[in-house]
Amino acid sequence: MGKIEALFFDVFGTVVDWRSSVARALEAALGPRGVSADWAAMADAWRARYQPAMEEVRAGRRPFVVLDVLHRENLEAVLAEFGVGGLSAAELDALTRAWHRLDPWPDSAGGLAALRRARIVAAMSNGNIALMVNLSRHGGLVWDAILGAELAQAYKPDPLCYLRGVEALGLQPAQCMMVAAHNDDLRAARALGLATAFVRRPTEHGPRQTTDLEPAAAWDVVCDSLTELADRLS
Amino acid sequence: MGKIEALFFDVFGTVVDWRSSVARALEAALGPRGVSADWAAMADAWRARYQPAMEEVRAGRRPFVVLDVLHRENLEAVLAEFGVGGLSAAELDALTRAWHRLDPWPDSAGGLAALRRARIVAAMSNGNIALMVNLSRHGGLVWDAILGAELAQAYKPDPLCYLRGVEALGLQPAQCMMVAAHNDDLRAARALGLATAFVRRPTEHGPRQTTDLEPAAAWDVVCDSLTELADRLS
């Protein structure tokens, strides 16, 4: 692992617990309006529209727009799905920004800080720069750079996303390691020559999660936290 | 100043002392080869080619290339000017990376850290992302985001550079303040609606500096260090 100079982090699910945070934000915004719902299910429904929305961009059916735009459109669809109406444009904007205030997993801030002592740590997320900046300040996460979708104008697992990040750091793919809780993300990174680390996040999708519970290939590192990753790479 | 949510920093000259650092790197690289020169004058000559090289991009005579490319081309021209030959491509690459290891001014790391407690701090430099990442790790500088030339694919004072940064943070120009030791940089930012802070760096160009010794307009803040700026904005 001595050749690895930069670590690229998937963020949603790998570094932050989006589901609990979004469920809480939905309850805080809609509860006082008299809405009663399974907030975690509503968070799941919002997230379920994430991949299909990005797929429109990946497939070339729509020009690149940042994730805040997709989150806002998807929120409107989810509220309709749950029969919730009457929010103003400003209220919809504010609720969309729930994704800017996701709490990190307990090991994330400390793990990133430890990893950053020896290597470049960069966000390699489909989130836009404003979202990453706000989420990171909220959670005490320090990055050397925010790479990813907005810089590449493409959504993972589009190869452009990883390659633009590698290029921006002036490195070769083999000098970079993709860190993710998702096998698909690592599969795309490995195909381009990046090293790979799988972090188990068995409750990203709640207590009954069925996907990405275990590594689906022989990734270079498999671990249970970013602090464990720091120990393994040191 | 309560509305200011993000501070954009010019870096070369404002945050780091490029001249002393580059002179030292030239001496370290060329001295052992038997070259004897006025190293500060050689650093000045290298820097003198910076604006004309970027102007080729600004004027549309050349597609955008990152600053590492311009620094490398300019190094070859300066070495020829000083009658120095015989460096290999790898040696030229390594010397070009002198710009990735510029020392900060004594107040920079502490000032940025203090400013970052209350506001987003972002690099708004003509340097590329790799250069900014390496220089910041070298000098202990922590940013929330690296904006600037590479993100915008344009060089300051091209308005695109500032506006792309504002947009990436999801803010309005009036919510951002440009911080620079250069009146031209602040003039361009103010014309777009950003707030402005002038930092006196009277030895950026050495002991006989004649430019940018004082503010050329009534900038919103005028100060002598980033720690003073933090005091003034708190």
UniProtKB/TrEMBL annotation, chains A, B:
| Any GO MF annotation of the entry | hydrolase activity, acting on acid halide bonds, in C-halide compounds
Q: Which InterPro entries match?
A: 2-HAD, HAD-like_sf, HAD-SF_hydro_IA, HAD_sf, S-2-haloacid_dehalogenase
Descriptive protein name = 2-haloacid dehalogenase
Entry keyword set: Hydrolase
Pfam families, alphabetized = Hydrolase
